[in-house]
Structures are given as C-alpha cells and as structure tokens.
Amino acid sequence: MSWINENFLKLQESYLFSTIAKKVERFTKEHPDQKVIKLGIGDVTKPIVPACVEAMHKAVEEVGTKEGFRGYGPEQGYGFLRKAIVENDYKARGIEIEEEEVFISDGAKCDCGNIVDIFAPNNKVAITDPVYPVYLDTNIMSGREIMYLPVTAENNFVPALPKEKVDMIYLCFPNNPTGTVLSKEELKKWVDYAKENQSIILYDSAYEAFITEREIPHSIYEIEGAKEVAIEFRSYSKTAGFTGIRCAYVVVPKALKGYTKTGKKVSLNQLWNRRTCTKFNGVSYIVQRAAEAIYTKEGKKQIQESIKAYLENAKIMKDGLEEAGFTVYGGVNSPYVWLKVPNGMSSWEFFDQFLEEVNIVGTPGSGFGKQGEGYFRLTAFATKENTIEAMKRIKSKKANWKL
Ligand code: MLT
C-alpha cells in the first residue's frame, strides 16, 4: 500500500491559473470569432532582448567546442552570475551580500515552493490575504498551520503585525496581486518583529524592477539587521522576459539561523545548500550566460525599455479604468492593477461577465484568497495595442457596470 500525503486533499482542486486557462479555452472554442485579450496570468509578451539572445548564441557555440563544453555545472549557479548579482543587484544599492549566499534557480515559483523543505512542519506561518497562491499551497501540502493577514483597501494594503507569535512570514512587495508597495518604515516593523520572535521572513521581491518611487525599498536587506531574519527571492521572469527561459535566484544569508528542537542554532544557508546539491543540478550554462547579459551596459538599457513599456501599459490601464469609473489600486510601482468589482458582484461573476461582454481575461481576486473577494487583477504585460484596445472596450461598455 502506498499512503498519500493527505495534505494534498486540503488544496483547492485546481491551481488558480490552470482553472482560468481552462475557462478561457472553453470560451474561445465556443466563440471562435471573438478576439480575447488576455490580462490574466502575468506572462510577458516582449521578446528576449538582443543582449541576452547574443549571449545565448555565444554560449551555444561555446558548448559545441571541445574546450568550451560544459557538463554538470555547480548546483548553486556559476560564479560569473552570482558575482554579477552581488555587484549589480546589491553592492550598487549599498548592500553587502556574499556570492555563496546567492543560489541560482529555475524560477522564484520553484524557490518559494521548495524553501519549505528546510523548515519543520510545526512552524506557524503568516501569509497575507490575498496572496500569490504558491506560498499558501506549498504550506498546505506540508501541513503547516496558517495565519492570514488581511490586506485590503481598509488597511491601505499594509498588513498588520500578527498579535501572536508566528515562525515564518511571507511578504511580497511590490505585491502580487494588489500591485501595492511597502515603505521602508513599514518593512522595518516586520524585520523588528522577526528579530524579537526569532521568525524568518520569506521576502518575494520578484517585481522590484517595476518600482518607480524613490523611497520604496527594492530589497529587504536595505533594512538594517534583515540579513539575520530574511530570505529574499528574485526572478528574471518579469524583469527580463524569462518566463519561458527560466532563471531566478534566492539569497540565503549566512547570518540566518534556524533552531533544532533542543534549541541549537543551525545555518539556513548550509541547509539550503545541502538541499540544493541533493535535489537540483543547476540551471543550464546557456541560460545563466543569458542572465549575466542582463547586467551588461546594453542589457540594462534594453531591459529598462521593456520595463518602461510595461509600466506605460499599467498607466494606460489605471487611467482608462478610472475614466470608466472603477476604483483602482496598484499599477504605479507594479505591473499589476487591482480593481474593486462594482455593484457587489463576486470576483468570479465579474470574471465571467468581463469575458462575455468585453472578451477580456483577468484574474478574480478571490482566487488569491478570501479577502480578495470583490476585487479583480489585470496585468500590464500585454502588448500596448491590446492594452489600449482593452481599455477602449471597457470604456465603451461602462454603462453595463453602472459605475
Ligand atoms: C501571476 O500571474 O501571478 C504570475 O505570473 C504567476 C507566477 O509568476 O508564477
């Protein structure tokens, strides 16, 4: 007999974005002549920038030679990429991170999901609500107790510190799904809380490249003492269009300690390294060379152009939706716009109506958690033409929502 992990039975039947994809597929089959605009899952539309394409070509040529051939690489990532990260993403912002604290991976979704391996199942976990479903699902899978921290318009999307002690805290800023940010002062409160309670913060900073306001922190390590309490996740998916290429990284500082049952301190960097060596064989050399090219002068310039274009889409959406009469959040430091569903409709009712009437796909807020009910998320990752077209359709049908 093979016993299953029964925690899986506590999950919703289907992953949010798979449910949406199925609904959209059905709609498209039934309405083949209608042009559906997809503003649902945050998948990018701009091609890989030339600097990265060139780097990949070069790497392909290299591995095709006797001298340049590479087999298994270091599980933690090649030194050239770890160095580029340390210098560009951290040193340039006045943050000291060591190369051995950086682990290259095939995606922040995988990192956020896999990190739970090194933590005990009896840890109490705090998760904002609404939330990127991966944090929640992976902790349900491993049977942890979960505490929800509401983030809604009522608290200005700033989660309040838990009243009781929690061991692991997930924070994502700029936030997915709400598109809102946390100031340095607010983030400091979390670092202080984690220090006092010996908790660990799992800080998802996958959208930091979209921050436009100067005072907003890009990394949790901008807060003093954060290296003793936080793991940080970063991704090239949205920044450099790597959703299909797959490359990301996680920073696990050496100062970070977890505890055994008997109270002995253990290095989380060592545990994560041990897990990585056993379960992962590293990201391909070709992809890591592409990621390295993001940090060249040309690469930086090209990537900034894409980010600027997505942020312009976000502005087009925010302005368009507001003009149509919707209440809108996010979209300034983020590629996500979070809108209030009108007339007391549920998020899924609004999803269906939006798809039927304007042929636009969004993501129902309730798919991100109970507190997301009554909200709806749209992404700015479509083409500019489709973004403009979507807003035109919405404005022309605004009477439908009695805004
Ligand atoms: C989203 O739409 O929330 C993201 O694209 C999902 C992801 O990054 O896995």
Please describe what this structure looks like.
- The chain contains eleven helices and 15 strands.
- Helix 2 packs antiparallel against helix 8 (285-293), helix 3 runs parallel beside helix 8 and helix 4 packs parallel to helix 5.
- The radius of gyration is 21 Å and the shape is globular.
- By secondary structure, the chain is an alpha/beta fold.
- A hairpin with a 5-residue loop joins strand 9 (257-259) and strand 10.
- The chain has helices at residues 16-30, 50-63, 79-90, 108-114, 133-141, 184-197, 268-279, 285-293, 297-324, 347-358, 384-396; strands at residues 37-38, 102-105, 124-129, 145-150, 168-172, 200-204, 230-235, 248-251, 257-259, 265-267, 328-330, 336-340, 360-361, 363-364, 375-379.
- The mean pLDDT is 96.
- The protein binds D-malate.
- Residues 41-43, 109, 132, 176 line the site of D-malate (MLT).
Strand percent estimate:
15-25%
What composes the largest sheet? 7 strands, mixed
Number of strands: 15
Based on secondary structure, the structural category is: alpha/beta
Total helices: the number is: 11
* Helical content class: 25-40%
Anisotropy-based shape? globular
How many angstroms does the end-to-end distance come to?
58 Å
* Residue-averaged pLDDT: 96
Radius of gyration: 21 Å
- SSE string, helix = H, strand = E? HEHHEHEHEEHEEEEEHHHEEHEEEH
- List ligands, each type once: D-malate
Instruction: Write out the strand line-up for the largest beta sheet, numbering strands in chain order.
Output: 2-8-7-6-5-3-4
- Low-pLDDT segments: none
